[in-house]
Design the sequence.
């Protein structure tokens, strides 16, 4: 039923070369959001067909064209593991162009060991995980599709034990296993499909990927919506607990972040892209309640690698 | 063989509370104060949403706090560090938990440090050398398992946390996400 509606709208759009002012874009965006939030796929609310017919048919020459292939992908497609890896690699290479890795082999190796162990609890076997500590006092952590996870030195310094590291990494791993950035990219690729003719000129595949993610690593400054961040907190906490750590590592880090001065310049990007730590603690508390009361786990403060 | 050591280690961990916090906190929801760090212990008092507490000790998912005349254990996720109140936006400058850590070397001077910003990220150019460095540190699942077992970490079953239903009630209208706002 829903599929038919979309197909009808699509064919209309393609045949009539959609023009300005027509609200197809919004309609399609709603459809995409529905596709993405599979949770509420029980019924399709459909005021769209009537508006489609009344506004679309008589419009004259097109100012915008739709790339049908791209649009079809945005609606129904999925990135393959290989595409996902390439997108993540491009984003990560760009990010590393802005901030280099800390020159400390032992630290980096340690973080990869902890990260991989936590990631094993997430069940994505099609991913090769890469973890890195970024050489900046900025307090933040990043994830990119395909298993790339970064923690800044500034955030790492705030950590007190391995369980807290596991919690932070768990949050980022959850972004990857939940394909959160890919979903956001799909939404923007839809806008791309509506906003311009995708150039069919031969381009290097890296260039295509770079076009998709925008300038440099700006996608990392754009952030995800707050519900997605709350979800990553819930999932990350569970991953750490499944790995045998105390579940309270991530909340402890959030507590520390909540206690930082609001004007601390090291957290400006973090606060721009995430809900306030107090809101994250509150949302996490709603979800957790007494559910984890019986869960035991290790903190491993002794094994925690401390940076100079 | 190592497996037999785990229960003992867990017991030990349970017994150790982390002292010396004594930081201000704000209660995030109406909560009970328990006499022990356990929801099955007797209730020693109550703390109202928005009230200030003094955080005395931390133990697992619990904080020992004093609130007015009563002292007791409250769930870690029912309190936020800092006296800044409930809202994120109204958060003032606070000397919070980060500067009360026992290890002074971990306290980083804020002055003169600049965080990452949008422009840094936008201007960033792909760095293949750094990316290759990252490849060199890749750890296999087998290596990760070995690393875990060295400290007696064992994978355990923990059910996924459901999305809370009451979450939407606290904020009447859904705020636009940062992505949508672009």
Sequence:
């Amino acid at each position: 039923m829903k599929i038919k509606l979309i197909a009808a709208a699509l064919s209309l759009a393609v045949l009539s070369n959609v023009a300005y002012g027509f609200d197809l874009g919004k309609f399609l965006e709603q459809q995409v959001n529905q596709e993405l939030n599979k949770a509420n796929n029980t019924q399709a609310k459909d005021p769209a067909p009537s508006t489609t017919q009344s506004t679309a048919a008589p419009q004259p020459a097109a100012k915008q064209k739709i790339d049908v292939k791209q649009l079809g992908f945005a609606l129904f497609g999925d990135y393959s593991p290989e595409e996902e890896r390439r997108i993540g690699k491009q984003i990560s290479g760009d990010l590393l162009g802005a901030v280099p890795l800390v020159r400390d082999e032992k630290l980096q190796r340690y973080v990869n060991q902890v990260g991989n162990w936590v990631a094993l609890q997430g069940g994505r076997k099609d991913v090769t995980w890469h973890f890195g500590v970024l050489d900046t006092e900025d307090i933040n952590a990043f994830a990119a599709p395909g298993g790339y996870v970064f923690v800044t030195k500034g955030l790492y310094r705030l950590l007190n034990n391995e369980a807290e590291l596991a919690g932070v990494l768990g949050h980022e791993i959850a972004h990857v296993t939940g394909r959160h950035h890919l979903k956001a990219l799909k939404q923007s690729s839809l806008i791309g499909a509506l906003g311009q003719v995708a150039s069919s000129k031969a381009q290097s595949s890296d260039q295509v990927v770079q076009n998709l993610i925008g300038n440099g690593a700006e996608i990392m400054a754009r952030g995800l919506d707050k519900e997605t961040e709350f979800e990553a907190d819930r999932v990350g906490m569970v991953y750490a607990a499944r790995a045998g750590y105390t579940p309270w590592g991530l909340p402890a880090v959030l507590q520390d972040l909540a206690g930082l001065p609001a004007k601390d310049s090291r957290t400006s990007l973090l606060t721009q892209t995430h809900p306030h730590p107090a809101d994250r603690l509150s949302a996490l508390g709603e979800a957790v309640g007494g559910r984890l009361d019986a869960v035991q786990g290790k903190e491993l403060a002794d094994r925690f690698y401390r940076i100079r | 063989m190592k497996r037999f050591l785990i229960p003992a280690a867990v017991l030990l961990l349970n017994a150790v509370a982390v002292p010396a916090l004594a930081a201000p906190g704000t209660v995030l929801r109406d909560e009970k104060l328990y006499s022990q760090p356990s929801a099955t212990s007797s209730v020693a008092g109550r703390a109202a949403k928005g009230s200030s507490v003094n955080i005395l000790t931390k133990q697992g998912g619990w904080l020992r706090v004093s609130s007015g005349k009563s002292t007791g254990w409250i769930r870690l996720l029912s309190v936020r560090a800092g006296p800044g109140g409930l809202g994120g936006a109204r958060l003032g400058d606070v000397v919070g938990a980060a500067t009360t850590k026992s290890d002074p070397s971990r306290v980083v001077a804020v002055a003169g440090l600049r965080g990452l910003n949008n422009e840094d990220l936008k201007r960033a150019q792909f760095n293949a050398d750094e990316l290759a460095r990252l490849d060199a540190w890749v750890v296999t699942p087998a290596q990760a398992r070995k690393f875990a077992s060295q400290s007696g970490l064992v994978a355990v079953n923990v059910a996924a946390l459901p999305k809370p239903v009451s979450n939407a009630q606290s904020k009447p209208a859904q705020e636009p996400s940062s992505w949508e706002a672009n």
The two ends of chain A are 61 Å apart (CA to CA).
